[in-house]
Amino acid sequence: MTSQELRAMSFRIRREILTMALHAGPNGAHVGPAMSLVEILAVLYGSVLNLDRTNPQWSERDRVYLSKGHGALAYYAALHEVGFLTHEELETYDDNAGILPAQPSRYPEKGIEFSSGSLGLGLSPAIGSSLAARSRKQSYRTIVLLGNGECNEGTIWEAAISAASYHLDNLIAVVDNNGIQSDGFSIDVLDMGNIAQKWKSFGWEVRCVDGHNVQELFSAFTTPWSGSPLIIIANTVKGKGVSFMENNKDWHHNRLTKELYDIAMKEQGALDEA
């Protein structure tokens, strides 16, 4: 896809996020963490991943593990973009007994590779997937999406050491570095300091980008590297694209009313025309 097409895809994903969040009603939804993931997922599913749209379980497919399960709204919308989920299925988001719970439940026939919810648990199975590809002499890559607050978890750093020790250059991690987590601003909850330097010290290839710039993201994913796992620190804005959500910790999880939905959707239209 061209950069213009990826930006258009991002606008569609944001609209779907808002519509699913409205459908969730009084349950509320993790809208802010989904909005910061949008361009990352658009670039992955629009231009980077090796997938077969007619066969979600193709053995050589690239795997995506959403470790920050609270980004599910964006993930589902991206899967819809590549035809793994129908629009009718998106309309069942968070319904009782539905296939699209608030945080993903593994459903490989629909492109959902990994059940998530409890934070810090996605990188370890992604390492297992990467090791399996190596042992089977398969060419697929595994991409795991992490939250910046999730990087407070010790399990992330144990896994990071292991991935570097195994020289897993078929593994890509992405940190959605939006600066806010469930309990507030990340710097106030637990100041991680220079997170890029930390990953580098653990033996990873590190690339820092504007997480809303599709060209920077595409270059970060596709510029060759070898001999170590790759981490992309994507600097993003929580609630990106909706003025009352941006950098607002109250929108980590909140209820989107019809009035607020209309305001947010109007802003999406204005962005699309810009």
Task: Please characterize this protein's 3D structure.
- The chain contains 11 helices and 7 strands.
- With 274 residues, it is of the alpha/beta class.
- A 5-stranded parallel sheet has the order 1-2-3-7-6, sandwiched between helices.
- A hairpin with a 2-residue loop joins strand 4 and strand 5.
- Helix 3 packs parallel to helix 4 and helix 3 packs across helix 10 (214-222).
- The protein starts with a helix and ends with a helix.
What is the topology?
Elements: H1 3-24, H2 31-35, H3 38-48, E1 63-66, H4 72-81, H5 87-90, H6 123-136, E2 142-147, H7 154-165, E3 171-177, E4 180-181, E5 184-185, H8 186-189, H9 195-201, E6 205-210, H10 214-222, E7 230-235, H11 258-273
Parallel strand pairs: 1-2, 2-3, 3-7, 6-7
Antiparallel strand pairs: 4-5
Helix pairs in contact: 1-3, 1-4, 1-11, 3-4, 3-10
